[in-house]
Design a protein that fits this description.
alpha+beta, seven-stranded mixed β-sheet, six-stranded mixed β-sheet, 15 helices, 21 strands, globular
Amino acid sequence: MNEAALRKIVIVGGGSAGWMAAAILGHFLPPPACEIVLIESDEIGIVGVGEGTVPLMTHFNGLLGIDERDFVAATNGSFKLGVEFRDWGEVGNSHFNGFGDYGDTIEGISPHHHWLKLHRLGDPRPIEDWSMPWAAARRGRFAPAETLPAEDAFFKHAYHFDATLYARVLRAHSETRGVRRREGRITGVDLDPESGFVKSVTMADGETIGGDFFIDCSGFVGLLIDKALGIGFRDWSSLLPCDRAVAVGSEPVEHLTPFTRSTAKAAGWQWRIPLQHRTGNGHVYCSDFISDDEAAATLLEGLDAPALGEPRLLRFKTGHRQRFWEKNVVAVGLAAGFMEPLESTSIQLIQTALARVIELIPDRRFDPVMIEEYNRVTQAEWERIRDFLILHYCPTRRSEPFWRHCAQMPIPDTLAYKIAVFESCGRVALFSEESYQEPSWVAIFLGNNMLPRRYDPLVDRLPLEHLRGGMNQRANAIARAAEHMPVQRAFIASCCAAQAA
């Protein structure tokens, strides 16, 4: 036994971030060997804008032993195969970033190069015709990949869910495994005068709660990482200028689409996330180009069912803490930073942060080399996602002032290099800590008509008629497989329908 092992972890803040931290830490450091306390106040609301996820969510829940069907039922959830983008680049444009690829390589070459050759020869079909996720999504159909024949299983899935209900699921899971919840507001933070480490927090009723290791899940306020330790914020507003959102639920629709929809608007974009009991909607925008009232009106005009209330305004700034882990405090979730939910990365960033904490779990000596490694890898991950989000904006051909601003913004050198490589030869230059792999980058490049000057010349080794025949066969097989899937509403009704309230 390590005599310096952690004896007590304090999580400041609840919501999805706090309870995900409690669940995963309780799994790897189960009480009573290490005491885990989560502090939250019922008086403080949950932001809860992130109701869409990426496939990492399936692994997170699986690690905790949370059954997928129980999870979907408990959170009024639905299944997600990717994101459909409408009117990005130009009005009328549509493309899809699915949780899958475009099939196996052909003669060792990525399939998008073969598509590029056919496209140059006049084939009008979009590359989505070779995407299994889109074949199912466009038809409103869903079945898990593991239930299909291997040749049809070129995809993964994620979820849409109610974030508040998910926090309840995780709370019940954590408390049955020994995590202790403390209700109340924190009114003070006590630092060690010599080390500067957080020693304890003081509650409104005067109780002092000490700990060895603190996880700051206090949201935008950054109670520990900012207010107590003074770690500043790296502002990315010059690269991703949207700074506000209005959100509202609408009545559920019968056709439960298994994808998130993102529709570009005059000064931002609108999301649509279908759940069993409602549809989540929001309008992300830049307040320099549209008023809050105009943004709310745009949101309501874009709903496909009656609203369930008045739009709620959220203010944010894109960017992250200059250091995510400082001394004995790690910031997770909104306390660490914010990325607009264009590709549903908010919950992903929580989960990867927690995975990194487990990988580099400290003892009470808090080796600074380990902390530095955490910060290095985490910052790289954020920068890669930042670049991927900017790629959705920078190739625009829309004429509104907001989009002209986006088209003229300087972009990071790392993204400029990726664009240059793809435009040259159709290759995707991937760096370390990439969240999005080649198919996703290809989806956004080609979806915005960023066509390379040439395709891989090795494609020409394959006789043209063989190429056409093979690509046609693959597209037809994908379409047939999708037609045999159940519609999502029927699939959910058969195994994971939410209980009536």
